[in-house]
């Protein structure tokens, strides 16, 4: 059905854009801000670690009302990449990556809940 196709396409675009920004550019950006090699690794990994910790929490919270989360968290996830333009230090980059990881942790379960809800009758 169309909603599933659009969700799949949106997910593909979001994840592709996220990976393209993270993999080749983020280490260069962090190093240009003066991050040491180990801090570059921490900056890159903090988003994944946040996702691992919060996805189960968000997934269990969806039982209480995913429609509210769909409305707000997709907007939050969409805005997060633009926040990088305000980063001017390694500490700020770390915090932005931490918050972006939380936004990413919310995006997956909320999207899956939306698909499950929209296909419940089928």
Structure description:
By secondary structure, the chain is mostly helical. The protein contains four helices and no strands. It has helices spanning 2-32, 37-61, 66-83, 90-118. The radius of gyration is 16 Å and the shape is elongated. The model has no long low-confidence stretch (mean pLDDT 81).
Summarize the structure.
This protein has 122 residues and is mainly alpha-helical. The chain is 84% helix and 0% strand.
Give the number of helices. Answer: 4
What gap, in angstroms, lies between the N and C termini?
11 Å
Helix content: over 70%
Structural class: mainly alpha
- How many β-strand runs? 0
Secondary-structure element string: HHHH
How is the quaternary structure best described? single chain
Shape: elongated
Q: Radius of gyration, rounded?
A: 16 Å
Quote the average pLDDT.
81
- Amount of beta strand: under 5%
């Amino acid at each position: 059905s169309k909603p599933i196709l659009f969700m799949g396409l949106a997910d593909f675009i979001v994840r592709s854009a996220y990976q393209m920004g993270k993999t080749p550019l983020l280490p260069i950006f962090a190093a240009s801000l003066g991050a040491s090699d180990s801090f570059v690794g921490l900056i890159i990994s903090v988003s994944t670690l946040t996702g691992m910790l919060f996805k189960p929490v968000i997934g269990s919270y969806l039982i209480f009302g995913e429609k509210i989360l769909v409305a707000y968290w997709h907007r939050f996830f969409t805005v997060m990449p633009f926040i990088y333009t305000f980063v001017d230090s390694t500490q700020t980059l770390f915090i932005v990556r931490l918050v972006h990881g939380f936004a990413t942790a919310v995006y997956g379960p909320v999207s899956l809940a939306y698909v499950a809800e929209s296909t419940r009758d089928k």
